Amino acid sequence: MAIRVLLVDDQPLLRTGFRMILEAEQDIAVVGEAGDGLQALDQVRALQPDVVLMDIRMPRMDGVEATRQITGPGRDGPAKVLVLTTFDLDEYVVEALKAGASGFLLKDAPANELVQAIRVVAAGEAMLAPSITRRLLDKYATHLPSGDEPVPDTLHTLTEREVEVLKLVARGLSNAEIAADLFVSETTVKTHVGHVLTKLGLRDRVQAAVYAYESGLVRPGAQ
Q1: pTM (predicted TM-score)
Q2: Phi/psi at 139 (nearest 5 deg)?
Q3: Where is the HTH luxR-type domain (predicted)?
């Protein structure tokens, strides 16, 4: 079945451009468009898309609040949100990830990256480009733990291997990349990621990455 995508951006020309790119793919179907966050909520309820391609800065309701309402408690549907931003260092991106976005992508990213990002997010993985993620976290390092704070009790529920996997998730690695790094199968990695999310009470890989930084397990700028 095709991946159902909803385009949300206050610029009609950008929506048209994204539609042309995505409709050229056999496994992706653009089911609707919205020009602001309020319209997006209505469209999500009516169309039940798999992925919402979400702009951040829009009138009436911005992409952060719309993302929070789409993916939060009492969510309107099963949609995952892929945030689009003009700037790779944007404080709103961090807020959108905390609100429940499954990843972010620059608006000027090549067409193939846009298509791949939608497939990755639809499959349940996070779209966190390591280089951009690291720059974002470096910029906001002053707002994150220094690493000297006590480790949260919940972190002690993880095995040594699960902690390793969590650190790699926080760096933005995919399951396949983690498997290669740890010399295990991709299925094994999926199992470890599942255990991490369950033990820490987290929704997805993005929340896991944010948790790793906020808990001090991983520090901005660390490799």
Answers
A1: 0.70
A2: -65, -40
A3: 151-216
Spatial separation of the C-alpha atoms in residues 212 and 97, rounded to whole Å: 13
pLDDT in tens, 135-175: 555 555 555 444 455 556 788 899 999 999 999 888 778 78
User: Could you report how far apart the first and last alpha carbons of the chain are, in Å?
Assistant: 39
Q: pLDDT value at position 147?
A: 47
pLDDT of residue 21: 94
Q: Tell me the C-alpha to C-alpha distance, in Å, between residue 150 and each of 32, 146, 211, 222.
A: 47, 10, 14, 19
Please check the confidence at residue 34 and state whether its pLDDT lies above 60. yes
Residue 163 and residue 176: Cα distance in Å, rounded?
17
Gap between the Cα atoms of 145 and 60, Å rounded? 34
Which two three-digit tokens encode residue 138? 């470096």
**CA pseudo-torsion sign 109, 111, 113, 114:** positive
CA distance 13 to 27: 23
Domains of the chain: 1-136 (3.40.50.2300), 151-213 (1.10.10.10)
Three-state DSSP at 80 gives strand
Q: Which residues are CB-neighbours of 131 under 8 A, at least 6 positions away?
A: none
Residue 146 has a pLDDT of 47
